[in-house]
Design a protein that fits this description.
three-stranded antiparallel beta sheet, 2 helices
Length: about 100
């Protein structure tokens, strides 16, 4: 009998924030069936200063209590433009 993991081809983990009712990915991590793996960080196109009070509270709560992520990536994370996210996911899936 096959184990459930034998049928998996990709594990994809997206972490991010809902801002103005839109999800913005801050981090993507993946692990493929052929053991390729990686992590990518992205900038969020909405500046922190432009957030509404409710969104600031949500970002603060999620950062401190759930994800441990900063709202914007630090330089050491080698962040990328979020516009490549869709193409990146397709490329990872094609591995």
């Amino acid at each position: 009998m096959d184990a459930p993991q034998d049928d998996l081809c990709l594990i994809l983990d997206l972490k991010g924030f809902f801002v103005h009712k839109t999800f913005y990915a801050k981090e993507l991590a993946y692990y493929t069936w052929n053991k390729d793996h990686g992590r990518h960080a992205f900038t969020i196109p909405v500046p922190y200063q432009n957030l509404r009070d409710k969104d600031i509270r949500t970002v603060t709560f999620v950062s401190r209590k759930i994800l441990g992520l900063t709202y914007q990536p630090v330089h050491a994370e080698h962040f990328q433009d979020p516009q490549i996210l869709q193409r990146l996911v397709k490329d990872i899936y094609a591995m």
